[in-house]
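>> received
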Amino acid sequence: MTAARGIVHAEYHEREFARRGGTLHGIQLWVNLPARDKMNPPGYQDIPSHRIPEVSLDAGVARIVAGDFQGVRGPARTHTPMLVMHVKLAAGGVAEVQVPGAWNALAYVITGRARASDAVLRERQMAVFGNGASVIELAAIADTDVLVLAGEPIDEAVVSWGPFVMSTTEEIVQARKDYASGRMGALAGR
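>> returned
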């Protein structure tokens, strides 16, 4: 979803899941838009699991959500160059991810344990790689799920207030007014 100048939304799970219960895992990522795109119309991309391509690794698989990895392009459209991928490695497996040296990059361990450089990452821990790290190497200590994110820095001001993210305080104040007046939409039945 691209919120841009504003969108009202809610995430729901299927009725059967609500009836029977269970564990639901989710990760919500917020990616800043360049100032030039913040007032664009909002948008939504439906990307079902079967549209996310996979790349086989030595001891695992990488699912490419956005950007390019080993010649495979993910389906998500982005406003700035980035790589978003979900890597599953068996214990002992290694993934090497090449990124442009000027990009910001991180690896977030969803489950398992992995080594990134000299750091051991456990479940729910993240490694942030310095600019100039053109190769990110992850070595699984146990069976591991890792979210790898990398992107070109925007290098612009970010001002946030609750769920609103803009470039200036004045834009945030206007966004809150737009939301309160219904200009960003409303949820059906609410």
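>> The chain has two helices and 14 strands.
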